[in-house]
Write a structure and sequence with these properties.
- It is a single chain.
- The protein is mostly helical.
- 67% of the residues lie in helices and 7% in strands.
- It contains five helices and four strands, in the order ββααααββα.
- The chain has helices at 12-18, 24-45, 51-74, 85-115, 136-172; strands spanning 3-5, 8-10, 120-122, 126-128.
- Helix 2 runs antiparallel to helix 3 (51-74), helix 3 packs across helix 4 (85-115) and helix 4 runs antiparallel to helix 5 (136-172).
- The protein is elongated.
- It starts with a strand and ends in a 9-residue tail after the last helix.
Length: 181
């Protein structure tokens, strides 16, 4: 159903009726995952006193992301929005790269701590011991990948993801954001 307002056709009512949301689990995985990324970043910016908490949040984010992937495999996503094939391809590649970065970031951080001989205390619930014989060179290399490659990739992909969502919402006006609310 289309409406005319001041001579301009609008399909806001039609778009609102056709919104297909992701299931509740997918929406929770998305937004809690975003919150965990921001929290981990905030904690590491607070200095060495917060590294233990940063590691716990990072490990939690890894588990959360793995559960999110399982949910993505077993649950049905809403129908894709109509867009050119090149945009669909970029969307799929960006999402794939995001998942790789969301797994790679905490894995490289965890392995750096492990091979550095440090454990990870997950909020006092359980602890994962560090390697009995530390390999400081490997730990430094992994930390370089964690802080450099993984962080920069994750940051770039998140910016691309947010930019694409805002483009859809405000330029294409296809109400994409409503699918994740």
């Amino acid at each position: 159903m289309t409406y005319f307002f001041g001579g301009v056709m609008t399909q806001l009512a039609t778009n609102a009726m056709q919104i297909q949301k992701y299931n509740l689990a997918a929406r929770l995985f998305h937004w809690v995952g975003a919150l965990l990324i921001v929290t981990a970043w905030f904690l590491v910016e607070q200095g060495e006193d917060f590294i233990g908490l940063h590691k716990a949040v990072g490990f939690s984010f890894l588990i959360w992301t793995l559960l999110r992937l399982i949910n993505r495999v077993v649950s049905k996503a809403p129908a894709a929005l109509p867009m050119p094939a090149w945009q669909t391809a970029i969307s799929h590649l960006t999402h794939l790269a995001l998942y790789v970065a969301m797994i790679g970031m905490p894995v490289t951080g965890f392995l750096s701590a492990y091979f550095g001989g440090y454990g990870v205390d997950v909020f006092g619930i359980f602890q994962i011991a560090g390697a009995a014989e530390a390999n400081r060179d490997l730990a430094r290399t992994l930390m370089g990948v964690h802080r450099g490659l993984m962080w920069n990739a994750l940051l770039a992909l998140v910016v691309l993801h947010i930019g694409a969502a805002l483009y859809h919402q405000f330029v294409k006006k296809d109400n994409l954001l409503a699918r994740m609310r």
